[in-house]
Every structure is written in structure tokens, then in C-alpha cells.
Amino acid sequence: MGFIKISEQPSLYNDLEKKSVRELLEDINREDQKVALAVEKAIPQIEKLVTQIVPRMKQGGRIFYMGAGTSGRLGVLDASEIPPTFGMPPTLVIGLIAGGDTALRNPVEKAEDNTERGWEELQEHGINEKDTVIGIAASGTTPYVIGALKAARSHGILTGCITSNPDSPMAESCEIPIEMIVGPEYVTGSSRMKSGTGQKMILNMITTSVMIQLGRVKGNKMVNMQLSNAKLVDRGTRMIVEELGLDYETARALLLMHGSVKKAVDNYKG
Fold this sequence. Notes:
Elements: H1 21-41, H2 43-58, E1 63-67, H3 69-80, H4 82-86, E2 93-97, H5 117-124, E3 132-136, H6 143-154, E4 158-163, H7 169-172, E5 176-179, H8 194-213, H9 230-244, H10 248-258, H11 261-266
Parallel strand pairs: 1-2, 1-3, 3-4, 4-5
């Protein structure tokens, strides 16, 4: 292999079962504090990837996240939050998980070991050169992800990845690897912990910065969010009150008529 899986190294803590609840929580929190610092070191790589994604998406490109287990679930989670947050169609950021949607709740045996399936799924989505494929794997060795990245890259598609191990096979198989070195997990090998937290941070960074660059945020507000519940209607109404100086009820009626803060403000005649 030629590389060391830091994500599988023994925990820095021992005899966990002998610790009090307070000790366990303080230990886990101490480890979690290392995650943001590890992500900070990876910012130049994240920047490089985002900078190349934006022009592709302006031409109608999409982002595909690919992972297995926790990594796959986090990709699906981030993708699923784009439509409500930014009012984008659900076809722009797509999360694919080894084993399909069943794997969101239950482990699917051997799904991540299939090197062909990831690329097949991308083809089912009509992948093209405007798209971006981002592999997610703490280990950096998941065959499902590596197979898809290699095939995508050979077809001239932009590829990136998020891993917790330096110099992994996954990083080698993509153009822009993001390596966040969070160190050994509190429970040895439990990469849903620090690795998962770091992946969530980076996924948020990628999609939020991309969406802002695509003009889906105004000032600091989600002016394109979907009005899918009372809390969001209230938030949108208050944005319009602030932006246009209207009373609450008028602003609310305007919002509901137009369906988004941006449309309401853009179409307001005064």
C-alpha cells in the first residue's frame, strides 16, 4: 500500500470502559477540537476545488458526492439540504451512496467493494464534462469511490476527494485531493467521529461557498430558501420587512405570492 492509515491508528486513550461519563465526554470534546484545525490546514485544497467547480456549474454542471457508510450518508445529507437552503433543484448536487438508498439506514454487505458500480451510477445520471465528482472516504481506500473517480477522470471530468489519510489510493485517483488529517479516533477506527465531523464541515464549506458564488445568497441571507414550514415563512417575511421597510403582514403576503424572498424583493413595485 505504501501509506499509513492514520484513521485506523490506535486511540490516544485507553481503558475507555473504566472512565466516568464526564471523562468520556471531555475526552471526545478534546479530540473534536482538533477537527476544525485540521480542516483549516486543508483550505488551500478546498479553495482549489471550489474555484474549479463554480464555472462548471454556471454552465449547467452538477456536483456528485460518492461514498460508502458514514461518508456516503454525509454526502447525501449535504446534497439534500441544497434545495431547501438555496432554492435550487435537487438535481444540482447529488449524493450517491454505495448500496443505494437502503444503505442510508442499513449497512449493505460488500457494496463498497464493487469498483464498477459507482461509474455505472454516474452514467445513469448522464454524467458529462461540466460535472464534478467528489469522493468521500476517511480511509481513502473505498473501491466503490476509487473506481468511479478513476473512470470520471479518464473521461475529462473534474474530480476531487475528502480523506483523513495522506497519500491514499483515493487521493492518487483524483485531480484535487482534500486531505484533512484529524488523527486517530477516540474509539479506534471509528471514523464516524472526527473524520465524519471534518467531512461534514468540508461539505458545508464546498456547497455554501459555491452557492454564494452562484448568487444564491444576498448580503448574508438565504433569499432563495424554500418556504417549507412556518419558521421559514416567518424568517423570509422578516427579511422582506428589513429589505423593503414594509409591515409584517404586507411582507408576508408578498412573500407567499412570489414564493421566495428574492422574487418578492425583485418584483416589488412600491
